[in-house]
Amino acid sequence: MKKIISIFLLSFLIFSIPVSAQKKGFYEGVQKKNVGLVLDNLNEYAAKADFKKYFALFADESTYIGTDATEVWDKKQFMDYAKPHFDKGQGWSFKSLKRNIYFSKDGTYAWFDEILDTQMKICRGSGVLEKIGGKWKIRQYVLSATVPNEVMSEVIKTKSPIEDALISELKNH
């Protein structure tokens, strides 16, 4: 009898959840997997230096922002930067350690942040994807080097001579 009551209560709870909420949860779960696959493929294709597959993941109108303050590239500029490295078989090896994915209400945009294990140690990848022609494409990717608070003052001393010149240049433009 307890089993029958338990099954009844469980069924009641499941069917009392609005169908729209059930569909949304399912849809979002599927889309999280799809976006995650794009990001996993991005890392895999970079590690294999597969230029064609790597850049096919980016929208035609996309931006890549690298760790250096001067690295803000449209897709063509990023391709020009990466091509010589990929041609030598020298991509980069990033492995996602932790990833968060979020969606716009209409489901056409996703944004993410992730902690990456890289040759530069821990970095943060973040960005925006758009569903274009039924496929998720990267619109913006930002790679940031993380700096532990305990060593920030040392890092600032090291980079100040380089970045002071850049700050001055940017203020004058």
From TrEMBL:
| Signal peptide feature range | 1-21
Keyword field contains Protease: no
Supply the Pfam families for this chain.
SnoaL_3
List UniProt keywords, sorted A-Z: Signal
Q: Where is the SnoaL-like domain?
A: 38-147
Give the residues annotated as coiled coil: none
By what name is this protein known?
SnoaL-like domain-containing protein
Organism listed in the record? Epilithonimonas bovis DSM 19482
